[in-house]
Amino acid sequence: MLNYIWAGLIGFSLLFAMTADVRDLANDTYRNGEPVELALGFPEGWDPDRRLVPVTVTVAPSGFAAFYGTDGRGPGPLDGTLLQTADGREIRFAKDVALPEPLATIRSVTSKRDNDLRGRLTGFIAAGDSAATAHVEFNPVRFVKLQAIAQAALSMAETAVTLALGLIGVLALWMGMLQIAEKSGLLYSLVRFTQPVLRPLFPDIPKDHPALGFIALNLTANMLGLGNAATPLGLKAMESLQELNPEKETATNPMIMLLAMNTASVQVVPPVLLVAIMGLAINQLFFSILIVTAVSLAVAILAAKGLGRLKRFRDTDPNRTPAPATETESE
């Protein structure tokens, strides 16, 4: 089901992006190929033989608004550099300088690495060695929204790979420790110890089943703020609960209860990241964390129990739905 939701979201985002990009092209939002007039100032004087000349750039507010069809102020005066070569002149605005729209978008698309707006100068007219006028033509900008979606997809794919590689070691370590605990009998000892507390919350799990031990370890890791340990333990608990599930395509009440308790973020010890940020000041939040985690846990348990009693959900519970009759039974 989630795959269909994600596919739908991606489809809608592409549709909206395409619509916005077509509108920008129809309205010529970025004035591709059309030069805008600039006023240039030379703090250190203008030398026609100098390759790089410091410059201040100003665009008249009225001219900027009329050219781009916006209500915003024109940029300026802004620091920049005049690049003079045998092929012509180019203006480069200072790196990371604040720019109004649509110049900020033009910069983000045409100069992603250096983040400095650049444009080719035409009609350069010097007024002595301290000022000049010229027209600047920026690189064409098209399909901004589609490019943003493509870039976001690539960035998230890179992030996903990084996270996956980082979790391999943690998953291997904790899965190996779980195997040792199960083979040595420590897991069954934990089940017998925690069973009186967990059985009322998970009544559908058979007595002394290892799933109770995995659930106890998962909740303990969450309470201690060990997120990297809680993830493989939670996956192992869900895997164990899935083995008890008679209908593999439908979640059982124990699976929903475990998911709800994990979503509630049961926390007793503050997370390591928060301790690293706040230091000893984290002690001021200790009781607040306990209150919030107790309330959220109670709400999660009551919600899972309450919804599980509704007829609509009770009728679809795999542990209560009768198995389909076989041909022998039907005869």
Question: Summary?
Answer:
Helix content is 53%, strand content 14%.
Radius of gyration: 32 Å
- Percent helix among the residues? 40-55%
Low-confidence stretches: 325-331
Shape: elongated
**H/E order of the elements?**
HEEHEEHEEHHHHHHHHH
- Helices, by number, come to 12
Overall pLDDT metric: 82
The largest β sheet comes out as: 6 strands, antiparallel, barrel
Q: How widely separated are the two ends?
A: 36 Å
Strand order of the largest sheet: 1-2-3-4-5-6
Estimated share of beta-strand residues: 5-15%
Which structural class should the secondary elements be placed in?
alpha+beta
Tally of separate domains:
2
Layout: helices, strands, pairs:
Blueprint: H1 2-27, E1 36-41, E2 52-58, H2 61-68, E3 78-85, E4 88-93, H3 103-110, E5 118-127, E6 131-138, H4 144-184, H5 186-198, H6 210-223, H7 227-243, H8 253-263, H9 272-278, H10 286-309, H11 311-314, H12 327-330
Antiparallel strand pairs: 1-2, 1-6, 2-3, 3-4, 4-5, 5-6
Structure, described:
This protein has 12 helices and 6 strands. The chain is of the alpha+beta class and 331 residues long. The chain has 2 domains: 111 residues, no CATH class; 135 residues, no CATH class. A 6-stranded antiparallel beta barrel has the order 1-2-3-4-5-6.
List its salient traits.
331 residues; alpha+beta; 2 domains; six-stranded antiparallel β-barrel; 6 strands; 14% strand; elongated; disordered C terminus
